Amino acid sequence: MSQIVIQHYARPAARRHLWVGLAMAGIAVAFGIEQIAFWLAAHPMAAKGLEASLFAGLATGLGAIPVLFLRRPSERLMAPMLGLAGGMMLAASLFSLLVPAVQSVAASPAAWPLGVVTALAFMAGVALMQQMDRRTQHAHVESIDSNSALPRVGLVVAAIALHNVPEGLAVGVSAAAGADHGMTLGIAIQNVPEGWIVASAMLVLGATPLRAAAIALATGLVEPLGGLLGVVASSLAGEALPLALAAAAGAMLWVVSHELIPASHKPGREAAGTAGLAAGFAIMTVLAAAF
Predict the structure, then answer these.
(1) First vs last Cα of the chain: how many Å apart?
(2) What beta strand segments (E) does 29-185 contain?
């Protein structure tokens, strides 16, 4: 793309071809959006799943607002905030994904073999996230310290996207399957402190408060992309829907175990991290019971 732009300025004669290409790309994007809109209109539950993931993603931008006034949360707050997010994601993966999958399998006439396949789908979700983590260069926001070497913004954004995709996937799958049980609201709630942490990390990397908040909002909008994958998977799964739920649960569990629990349990902060984890699980228990 950069070479096309260079040629555009270097050779004025190439401008017509550039504009033709841009026009074709615009038409293709418009056609794709139109087709997605038709598909969502024909699948109302899928539309509900996409809306749910969008709502959860926007909460990240809401959480970024404090950086305009309060800047970075203190180290004493980081542990319980990360623990809270981990506890809510852990409970959501259980109540809204794994339990409905197991209940569906238990009610089938072939519970044993389907149970084994469901467990394999769960492990496949874990393995997929592990492979994505290995193959994607990234830097975690909770490890950013102004007193140490700072990573590039692109690496931090990649880490956040890696974290948000399974969240959107899980919300999309559960909402489209009618098994939300408070997951959407729960993920939205835990995205609020997460947005503050992300935006404050952008401040350390040199962004202005307004730009830091905008970046945090943009990273939250990765979740609808995961939500779109989730609603498509749930629509295509049919009788295999428990497998999609289990795979999403595995992806969520990987994020909690690999990122949030270690980040919230740094030396000297274990008690605060555990308290946050328990509080997050308790909040999701109430939401699951209420919804």
Answers:
(1) 48
(2) none
**Cβ distance 188 to 291 under 8 Å?**
no
| Domain shared by 146 and 264, yes or no | yes
- Going by C-beta distance under 8 Å and a sequence separation of 6 or more, which residues neighbour residue 29? none
- Owning domain of residue 215: 44-290
The residue from 42, 58, 73 where one domain ends is: 42
Among candidate residues 171, 144, 169, the one with its CA nearest the CA of residue 229: 169
237 in the same domain as 183: yes
Residue 269 and residue 184 in one domain:
yes
166 and 33 belong to one structural domain: no
**Rounded-to-integer distance, Cα 219 and Cα 191, Å:** 11
Q: For residues 184 and 51, give the distance between their C-alpha atoms in angstroms, rounded to a whole number.
A: 10
pLDDT per residue, tens digit, the chain (291 aa), is 455 545 554 555 555 666 777 778 888 877 777 777 776 677 677 778 888 899 999 999 998 888 888 766 677 788 899 999 999 999 999 999 999 999 999 998 889 999 999 999 999 999 999 998 888 877 676 666 655 556 667 777 777 778 888 888 889 888 887 888 888 999 999 999 888 888 888 888 888 889 889 988 988 988 988 888 888 777 776 778 889 899 999 999 999 999 899 989 988 899 999 999 999 999 999 999 988
Note whether 139 and 7 are same-domain residues: no
User: Alpha-carbon distance 177 to 245, whole Å?
Assistant: 9
Closest CA to 83 of 217, 216, 210, 197: 197
Calpha distance 136→146 (Å, rounded) = 24
Nearest to 249 by CA among 198, 192, 179, 201: 179
